[in-house]
Specification:
Layout lengths: L2 E6 L5 E8 L2 E9 L9 E10 L4 E5 L6 E4 L17 H4 L7 H8 L14 H4 L5 E8 L8 E3 L4 E2 L3 E4 L5 E3 L6 H13 L7 E4 L8 H24 L4 E4 L4 H9 L6 E4 L2 H14 L7 E3 L6 H4 L3 H7 L3 E3 L5 E6 L3 E7 L9 H23 L3 E6 L6 H15 L6 E3 L7 E6 L6 H5 L15 H16 L6 E7 H10 L1 H11 L2 E7 L7 E6 L5 E2 L4
Length: 529
């Protein structure tokens, strides 16, 4: 399998990175210069409000919008008596502490185990308290960014987690021998007591020397951040994530990526400098694309990207999936279309669902859809087929970098799942709601608008001193009023002693309605609606 990374930065306003496998687009990342990209940044903030009813605090961290800090994202060092001391977490928040107690506090509640006890948030913080936070989710709509006090700083092979207080290995590394070897290598590096480190999936085949070099870099960076926190007062930024090119190479590039192509010289030089620093053996895989044809057109990706924003996605063997995104959840419907297998309804449904599961996993990655996702697969009667579909969907979702949880098929034949939402979906980032329909995807008919106009004219006829009413609407609505509603409008003119003028324009959107009421002297009159 040939795997390539394409980096398109020929337009200064936008950076696009695509991962393709054998010519098929598998992952896509888009970042706009005009959009704030705060995820991963660390700030020293100040508590500005506490909401005991939802057990959350709102934090001013200096970006214009307050962040949301829930009690579940407050780490145990804040639970001690006496409240928050801003000097304690700066160097080593758990120095001399009970690491086993903190490990228990961080562990998620499991069935049959005792749930961890957290004090109310109003006992942990007061207004004006300073707190070190990291952005873990971008603000979506009117919601501000989501914050956490569990700080994590990624390196190439390791992640520094000051609050963790122990050493660990990524859950995505499943081989027991690899896990034991990596854990032992970390122990032999003798990291400072109290600081936590996690080995990333990229570190699975790394030597002890490479891990040591990454740990030294992270420790140097942490000392710089500690000094910055001590010298500055909140709200202030302490650490900013790298740009998307460096971040993506750091997090995604592995030895199975055959080549990286960059279509802009400055970006190529930045990527080359980073690779020479952290992965000098793989610098030869980086190439500056100098072709005349645009990079994404060269690989026929523009058509594929345009398909991402469409509601219906055709499947190679027939049939399709339909994706509808709402505020609270994503609904995905599987349609068999003309796909048939040996005149067997059960086998047709099973194979169709298996093909749809693979494409659903791919589309969730490409569109960056998060939150609650409901998959309406074609009904299957056999239990082995339902279980097989669930296993297949889980297997296809394993390559997703976002955390996912998939439930078993419900009695209604639905497969419900959640996917970690870090930032607004790709569609929300690229598109804005239509001013004509306000995102509803439908507008009122000319008949509906005409009925509404007549109601407003009836109201205007009841106002004292109204002499003339001018109505401005879409051309189709004006035509309907002047032709089919002329008798009613004439009657309203006679009963109200006023003149009504209907003006239509093709440039007005279908639901535009503007009434201008005037008295005999030409002064405007406001309708009491």
């Amino acid at each position: 399998m040939k795997k390539e990374m394409l980096i398109n930065v020929s337009q200064p306003e936008e950076c696009r990175i695509a991962i393709i496998e054998d010519g098929l687009l598998e992952e896509l990342y888009i970042e706009r210069a005009s959009q704030d990209n705060l995820v991963g940044n660390i700030y020293k903030g100040r508590i500005v409000n506490l909401e005991p009813s939802i057990q959350a605090a709102f934090v001013d961290f200096g970006v214009g919008r307050n962040g949301f800090l829930h009690i579940s994202d407050v780490e145990p060092q804040y639970f001690r008596q006496g409240g928050y001391d801003p000097d304690v977490p700066l160097e080593n928040p758990h120095a001399g502490g009970d690491e086993e107690a903190e490990r228990r506090a961080k562990r998620k509640h499991r069935p049959g185990s005792r749930p961890r006890i957290k004090p109310p948030i109003q006992e942990l913080f007061r207004r004006g308290d300073e707190v070190l936070v990291q952005v873990i989710k971008e603000g979506i709509g009117a919601k501000g960014p989501t914050l956490s006090t569990y700080i994590s700083i990624p390196g190439r092979y390791l992640v520094l987690m000051p609050a963790l207080g122990r050493l660990g290995v990524s859950r995505k590394i499943e081989d027991d021998d690899d896990r034991k070897r990596l854990r032992q290598a970390l122990l032999e590096l003798n990291p400072p007591k109290g600081l936590g480190f996690i080995v990333r999936t990229a570190g699975v085949d790394r030597t002890k020397k490479e891990l040591s070099r990454d740990m030294a870099y992270l420790l140097r960076l942490w000392k710089v951040l500690v000094r910055r926190v001590k010298k500055t007062s909140a709200p202030v930024d302490i650490y900013e994530e790298s740009d998307m090119i460096i971040r993506t190479i750091r997090d995604i590039f592995t030895t199975d990526v055959d080549a990286i192509y960059v279509d802009q010289e400055d970006a190529y030089n930045r990527a080359k400098e980073f690779l020479q620093l952290v992965m000098p053996r793989h610098v030869g895989r980086l190439h500056l694309y100098e072709g005349k044809e645009p990079l994404f057109h060269r690989y026929k990706l523009e058509t594929e990207i345009a398909r991402i924003y469409k509601r219906e996605v055709p499947l190679p063997a027939g049939g399709s999936i339909v994706i509808d995104q709402t505020e609270a959840l994503v609904a995905i419907d599987v349609n068999s279309g003309n796909f048939r297998v040996d005149n067997s309804a059960e086998e047709t449904a099973f194979r169709m669902n298996m093909a749809a599961a693979k494409e659903i996993a791919r589309q969730l990655r490409l569109r960056d859809l998060g939150g609650v996702i409901v998959n309406d697969f074609i009904d299957m009667r056999k239990e082995k087929h339902r279980r097989g579909l669930e296993r297949a969907l889980r297997d296809w979702m394993k390559r997703d970098r976002a955390r996912t949880k998939i439930l078993r098929t419900s009695p209604f034949g639905l497969v419900e799942m959640t996917r970690q939402r870090i930032r607004p979906s790709l569609k929300r980032s690229v598109y804005t709601d239509c001013p004509c329909c306000n995102g509803r995807a439908v507008v009122k008919t000319a008949e509906s608008m005409s009925i509404e106009v007549v109601r407003m004219l009836m109201l205007a006829g009841q106002q004292p001193n109204v002499d003339r009413v001018t109505v401005r609407v879409n051309d189709d609505v004006a035509s309907y009023l002047n032709n089919r509603k002329r008798k009613e409008i004439t009657l309203l003119e006679e009963e109200g002693g006023m003149t009504i003028q209907i003006l239509g324009s093709e440039g007005l959107y279908p639901e535009h309605l503007e009434l201008d009421c005037r008295d005999r002297s030409g002064q405007p009159i406001t309708l009491n609606t």
